[in-house]
Amino acid sequence: MTLQWSAVATFLYAEIGLILIFCLPFIPPQRWQKIFSFNIWSKIASFWNKAFLTIIVLLIVLFLDAVREVRKYSSAPAIEKSSTSRPGAYEHTQMKLFRSQRNLYISGFSLFFWLVLRRLVTLITQLAKELSNKGVLKSQAENTNEAAKKFMEENERLK
């Protein structure tokens, strides 16, 4: 495996690990919101969209390169015909086809998981905000309910 595909595979494994960590049920969204609100994240946030788009473009280019390689080695009937002159040509072509398919899967899943990871982080932050809003709205509703009860009692006393 070349250096670029080793880097993409490592990136894929890191994405899978992060997605699994984000999906752990015993870590509430409020905790993730606290983690995401550290000062270091606010400094990185200005570069986040640029980095995200750069990684997307890089993964798309690698994916398209892998598609090209798969198409190149899938349609190689000329090598099969000339296998009498070179006995290992068919196996060599099949090896290259396997490697290009492996690279296609690695880059495709890496691209997909990168998009899933961004959406997952967005949903976690939205859920944390909504849960905090829920608590505020619940306390406001309780205060309004108590005030309404007080006014109803006062109204009954005045009658």
From TrEMBL:
This is B-cell receptor-associated protein. GO terms for biological process: endoplasmic reticulum to Golgi vesicle-mediated transport; intracellular protein transport; protein localization to endoplasmic reticulum exit site. One of its GO terms (cellular component) is endoplasmic reticulum membrane. Coiled coil: none annotated. Residues 1-131 form the BAP29/BAP31 transmembrane domain. Plays a role in the export of secreted proteins in the ER. It is a multi-pass membrane protein. InterPro entries: BAP29/BAP31, BAP29/BAP31_N. Belongs to the BCAP29/BCAP31 family. PANTHER family: B-CELL RECEPTOR-ASSOCIATED PROTEIN 29, BCR-ASSOCIATED PROTEIN, BAP. It comes from Galemys pyrenaicus. It is found in: Endoplasmic reticulum membrane; Membrane. Keywords: Endoplasmic reticulum, ER-Golgi transport, Membrane, Protein transport, Receptor, Transmembrane, Transmembrane helix, Transport. The chain crosses the membrane at residues 7-27, 47-67, 104-128.
